[in-house]
Design brief:
- Two copies of one chain form a homodimer.
- By secondary structure, chain A is α+β, with helices and mostly antiparallel strands.
- Chain A has eleven helices and four strands.
- The relative contact order of chain A is 0.15.
- The longest helix of chain A is centred in the middle third of the chain and has 26 residues.
């Protein structure tokens, strides 16, 4: 029996708050793998650093090999479990999915993040909130509230950059074609992060993306409704 | 012997001026196919409409079947020549390539087009220029020159939206991974359209995209330097 361990970021009441962990959670399910989960808090940074030589989760351990960075983990799972359903479906699929990954993390992610920024501490454990706020505010050079002050005005630009998703999902049920694969898990993980991290429902605020909303519903329902486990933002 | 005919848009002195035709030109070469080329001008719209029921090129005829729209043509070639090198590499690759296609045509293409708009009539046959100008100016609601008046100021935004390409090509030689495939032909076709359509070298104007420049050079060199055939913009 293969030893698989998944170090996954958790927040308030064990909510899953990391988009990078969500895409790996779905990748494990896609491959039919059920790793042992180690719940990881921001305060666990020293343990994570000792294990992996860096401070970010997710991390997996597989038969003693430690892999960090969600893309590297997905590639590891694809290469080491080639007989399980494919995440990429070959070299071309892997290459183009990498492009989708970099688009998602450098274009979509920052635009979604600004939308939920002041709400996000609410899904962290109370003792993690000060660290989150001070580290992010140092990075941003302003308060979370100041950084998000233009979020309503930014909605049209966010909808515009989601338009390729809307067009794709108007033609085919998943970003990866007729069935979900890793490109879907990448993009879904960001909408899921927004959904858990804020009471604002981003897709209700952007009614011009109905195919994305329908797809998100399908994605939430995969693997016995995995996207609905672990709770949403505690509404005020 | 299969009968294959490729109706391809041409401009001044038989320059290939259509990004949609360029991606299909590369797709044919990728598959090792050498269709009969029918050079098509804007003035040939009646012939095109009789043939395909619509007015756009490229169009292919394959054993009597007429296919229009570059994506449909690429899918047709992939499905009907499955033993030739793959453009998509399976269902996942096809799905994610479709997303890349829609991103390229709705995000990258309009941003590149505005950069070269006033120069583009210079690569059309003189007798096509008035049609091009009047139809595009009607669409834009202003002159080509007015529409492009902010093109220098728009360069940082163009470079920003190309950043996922730069990041991807910093990690892997082609958008499709270790070898070029249809996603590369799609994105390349737009840079090639800009390169042929204007004396402005867009990648010289955006030095923050060195990996994209190197990739464009590789793409130009494929298939015996196909990207350098058919001429560039006649410099002033």
């Amino acid at each position: 029996m293969t030893a698989l361990i998944f170090h996954e970021r958790i927040g308030l009441e064990r909510r899953r708050i990391s988009p990078f962990s969500w895409r790996i959670r779905y990748a494990f399910a896609h491959k039919g793998l059920t790793p042992e989960v180690v719940e990881t808090r921001f305060a666990d940074v020293d343990r994570i650093r000792r294990l992996s030589g860096q401070h970010m989760v997710p991390i997996i351990e597989h038969d003693g090999t430690v892999v960090h960075d969600s893309w590297s983990i997905a590639c590891h799972l694809e290469d080491r479990f080639p007989d399980a359903p494919p995440l990429f479906g070959g070299g071309i699929g892997r290459g183009v999915t990498r492009m989708a990954n970099l688009w998602a993390d450098t274009v979509l992610s920052p635009a979604l993040r600004i939308q939920i920024l002041p709400d996000f501490p609410g899904v962290l454990m109370p003792e993690d909130r000060a660290y989150y706020r001070s580290s992010r505010e140092a990075e941003l050079g302003m308060t979370l509230e100041e950084a998000a002050s233009g979020r309503d005005a930014a909605l049209p630009a966010l909808a515009a950059l989601c338009r390729p998703l809307q067009l794709t999902l108007s033609e085919q049920p998943f970003l990866s074609g007729t069935a979900p694969a890793y490109a879907d898990y990448i993009v879904f993980s960001l909408f899921q992060y927004a959904r858990i991290g804020s009471p604002r429902d981003m897709l209700a605020l952007m009614p011009e993306l109905p195919a994305v909303l329908d797809w998100r519903t399908r994605m939430i329902g995969l693997f016995d409704g995995m996207g609905d486990r672990f709770g949403l933002h505690p509404r005020n």
